[in-house]
Amino acid sequence: MLRLLCILMLALPVHAQTLRIAAASDLASCIEDLNAGFKQSQPNTEFKVSLGSSGNFYTQIAAGGPFDVFLSADQSYPKQLAASGAAELSTLKPYAIGRLALWTMQPNVVLDLTRLGDVGIKRIAIANPDHAPYGQAARAAMQQAGVWDTVSPKLVLGNNIVQAVQFVQTGNADVGLVAYSLLKSPALSGVGRSLLLPAQSHSPLIQAAIVTRYGKSNPLAASYVDFLQSNAARSTLQRCGFDLPERH
C-alpha cells in the first residue's frame, strides 16, 4: 500500500509557479534569455513579463500593482518603493549599468552631441525624462554638451526607451539618444549608424532589482533577484550591451 502511494505521488503533475516581472524597456533584448537561464534551476517557473518605463512601474507598484519583481533602469525608483514599504529593501541589488548611444537611420546625420543643433536635424528622439531614466540621462548628456537649450524644441518624447527607438526606426526622428542594449538586439544589430556615448557624459545608469511587497510571499521572487548576480546572468547582460556593477 505504501509503495502504491509513493508511485501515485510521483505521478502527480508538478504545478507551474508564476513569477510576475516588471522590467525596464531596455531589457527587451535579453529578458527572455535571462528567464531561460533562471529556468535551468527552476524549470517549473512561468513568467509574466511587462516591459515599460521604470517611472510608470514605480507608480503602479506603489499603488499595489501585481508584480513580484521590479527590474528598474535606475536605483532611485526601487529605493523609493522600499522607503515607502512597497518593496523589500533587503532584496535591493544592482544588476546592470545601462549605456546611452546616439543612433540614426539617416546617412547625413553627424553622430556628435555637439552637432545636434545642426539645421539638418529636425527631430531628436529621447525617452520622456519625467519618468524614464534613459530620458534623464539623455537630458544630462545634452546639458553637459551645452546643446540642451538649443535642441529642446526638436525633441520627440517616447513613453519609454523602446518607443524612442521606434521613432528613429520609422523616420519620425532623425536621430535618437537610446539604450545601447536595444541596438545590440538581433532585430537592430547593424541597422543604421550608432555612437556609444562615453560613460562620463551622464550619471551612471545603475539598474537595480528588488522584490516588491506583493512578491514577498513568492519564493521565486528573491531567487530571481539573486540569480541576476550569477555568472550566467551577468554574461547575458554583458552580451546585451550592459556594463556590470560590482556584485552585492
Automatic annotation (TrEMBL):
Q: Which residues form the signal peptide?
A: 1-16
Q: Does the keyword ATP-binding apply?
A: no
MF terms per GO, please? Answer: metal ion binding; molybdate ion binding; tungstate binding
Q: Where does molybdate bind?
A: 54, 161
Swiss-Prot/TrEMBL GO biological process terms: molybdate ion transport
How is the subunit organization of this protein annotated in UniProt? The complex is composed of two ATP-binding proteins (ModC), two transmembrane proteins (ModB) and a solute-binding protein (ModA).
Protein family membership: Belongs to the bacterial solute-binding protein ModA family.
Question: What is the official name of this protein in its record?
Answer: Molybdate ABC transporter substrate-binding protein
Q: Please tell me the species this chain comes from.
A: Iodobacter fluviatilis
